[in-house]
Automatic annotation (TrEMBL):
Residues 164-272 form the Fe2OG dioxygenase domain. This is gibberellin 2beta-dioxygenase. It comes from Vigna unguiculata. Transmembrane segments: none annotated. It holds the Pfam family DIOX_N.
Amino acid sequence: MVLAAPKAMKSEGIIPSEVPVVDFSGERAEVAKVIVKACEEYGFFKVINHGISNEVIAKTEEAGFGFFGKPMLEKKMAAPAYGCKNIGVNGDMGEVEYLLLSATTDSIAHISKTISTDPLNLRKRLSAYTEAVKELACEILEVMAEELGVPDTRVFSRLIRDGESDSVLRLNHYPPIINRDKDKSSQITKVGFGEHSDPQILTILRSNDVGGLQISLPDGVWIPVTPDPSAFYVNVGDVLQVMTNGRFVSVRHRAMTNSHKCRMSVAYFGAPPLHQTIVAPSVMVTPQSPSLFRPFTWAEYKKATYSLRLGDTRLQLFRNCKR
């Protein structure tokens, strides 16, 4: 693994391991089985042969590093889309700076004018990337639905394709933590983005070749994820856990810093419209598996998310009292 576990964190149980890998060029039925199993056991998997061009990926990474390389005063001009160290409004902090924007053409066009001397070029790059990862997310969700036996295989993806989807694109930049000790070879690792689950439906994540991402298993063991710039990583979000009636697990994860190199990740968070009521399809609810969660809108859940700390568990607030 690229990221060595720091001595101070051994008690947490950080164990090198490999995450499930989905070859998207494979036979569809087999791909579906691997995806569903990964979502049940990990809530997380790696996608290779995803069909998104290297050019689209490279131009987005170049745009991200170009922005984060600007002087701080220039970056702050992009506020509130730009943030540094503060994560949310409830006091959570991390060794990270970020750019957060709605995954819509208008939002991307607006922010491009604010942060770039060549806004048309930046808009084209970010829009092409956003559209590509959205399509990947939708295809994954439709494959999931098929394997789960849901008659309407677009029941999940339709929420992301909706013109009022609340999906967002987030670029995270984790600068290296400089080691000022005499032993320059030692690794200093700090929390870049603290432990949490993603509240949305599905996350499509890609980073450069620097490690830092870790996922948590139900037994509390943390698994460092080996970076692969040619692949995408997929997280099950809270909403998808609800819509599969608990069959899929919303993975808890975090990002750690690196002493020697900066890490940049780009995450697409596929989310439903604010007014959308979140319920599991009827096929996911049976006498043997009664509904675990009461119906709620994405606006309600989003409000609950922002009212809590980053690492707080939110789903328990929406548990069905009949259970």
